[in-house]
Amino acid sequence: MSSGGATAELVVSFGEMLIDFVPDVAGVSLAESGGFIKAPGGAPANVAVAITKLGGRSAFIGKFGDDEFGHMLADILKKNGVEDEGVRFDPNARTALAFVTLKSNGEREFMFYRNPSADMLLTEADLNLSLIKRAKIFHYGSISLISEPCRSAHLAAMRAAKQAGIFLSYDPNVRLPLWPSEEAARTGIKSIWKEPDFIKVSDDEVAFLTQGDPQKEETVKTLWHDGLKLLVVTDGEKGCRYFTKDFKGQIPGYAVKTIDTTGAGDAFVGALLVSIAKDNSLFKNEEKLKQALTFANACGAICTTKKGAIPALPTASMAMELVAKAK
Q1: What would the pLDDT profile of 191-201 be if each residue is shown by its tens digit?
Q2: Pairing state of beta strands 230-234 and 198-202?
Q3: Strand 36-41 with 18-23, pairing
């Protein structure tokens, strides 16, 4: 059990978990790098750990290679209190790897090793549907939509959750190098756009998906659909913008010393899902939503002050301290 205990509402996160190899020196290319540090990564897994670190309750559904790296990742989930009954191992495929370079401004470039990796080979038969149906929230990204059989498994899991009346959360997490082309990425990501109750996109992703100016409200509005309860656009250190059926606004971010932006969006999403799991009247109550987004902004900001995603994910007290300090 996680620190959230059995009473906390369960968030099930679906998708990939992999190992990021990060150069031990920032600001150098992969070729120039002398050494690499292993860091667990994969957005849906980061979100699951972000939730337990904040005292919520989460489970992960995904597939690892039956190899040392796969078991290492499964252990990291366990150590962080993430429920693992949805985890599967594939004896015939490797755990995915990514080499990530940190440019001097903390932004990243990716080079992936997945041909095919175990996470891509999750099948419908691998799904723990009873786990999904016990969730209050089912969260996913778009990387699991890129290739079969994982795409079909993703769609089946989403259908099962929707039929059970579970809240659907989508963070597309655009990773262009993994898609066959930009067009394929746009089409694939938008193919499930009308399903979720909540979508989080970054300003860069708004620009990519709409091919318009992400700062213009009319551009963002083209991403709205009537099934949505909440659309959030994250603007990096500038904070975030929110849109519901009844209100919209902007919440400022926090100025911190950014070292590595890896996992910041996942820390933000995890924090927001913890709040939604506790109280889904947020979408009707702007004051409550603003508090939840302020807390989520703080979590995202803290996550950029340390290298790696999972080691940098904050606790609730760290986030509350930053919120209080800024006041």
Answers
A1: 999 999 999 99
A2: parallel
A3: antiparallel
